[in-house]
Amino acid sequence: MKNISVEELKEKMDRGETVHLIDVREPHEYAEAHIAGSRLYPLGKIQTMQVDELEDLKDEPVLLQCRSGHRSMMAAMVLEQLGFKDTSNVVGGILAWQEKGFPVSR
Fold first, then answer.
1. pLDDT at residue 1 above 90?
2. So what's the pLDDT on residue 93?
3. Residue 41 CB-density burial (10 A; 0-12 exposed, 13-18 middle, 19+ buried)
4. What is the DSSP string of the chain?
5. Which member of 5, 15, 38, 103 has the greatest number of CB atoms within 10 A?
6. Residue range 2-99, CATH number
7. What is the pLDDT of residues 4-18, one digit of tens each?
8. Gap between the Cα atoms of 49 and 32, Å rounded
9. Cβ contact 88:61 at 8 Å
């Protein structure tokens, strides 16, 4: 599995690259703080293979993010098993993002 740092993610976003960032936390966590442009898709849906809404990303680079990096790592493994070609885990998740002082949306 590939990993990406929050600094690398921020650089991609700052350069205007297309970023498919999936936040795998729960809705209440997402509401508290999330990275602008991320798409909420809880881990539970991914683990039960309810990924129809993500099928359009199967051949795209997908970055997965959670609170600290653990749930997003599990999500990346499941998506890889389901045939997603390019998944990466955002190491440290939203905690690392906020620790760097990067902006969040609420």
1. no
2. 98
3. buried
4. -EEE-HHHHHHHHHTT---EEEE-S-HHHHHH-B-TT-EE--HHHHHTT--GGGGGGTTSEEEEE-SSSHHHHHHHHHHHHTT-SEEEEETTHHHHHHHTT---B-
5. 38
6. 3.40.250.10
7. 999 999 999 999 999
8. 26
9. yes
Active-site positions? 66
- Find tokens 């909420």 and name the residue: 40
Nearest one of 18, 28, 16, 19 to 65, comparing CA atoms: 19
Residue recorded with tokens 């350069």: 15
* Residues constituting the chain: 106
Residue 24's identity, in one-letter code, is V
How many alpha carbons fall within 13 Å on the CB side of residue 29?
18
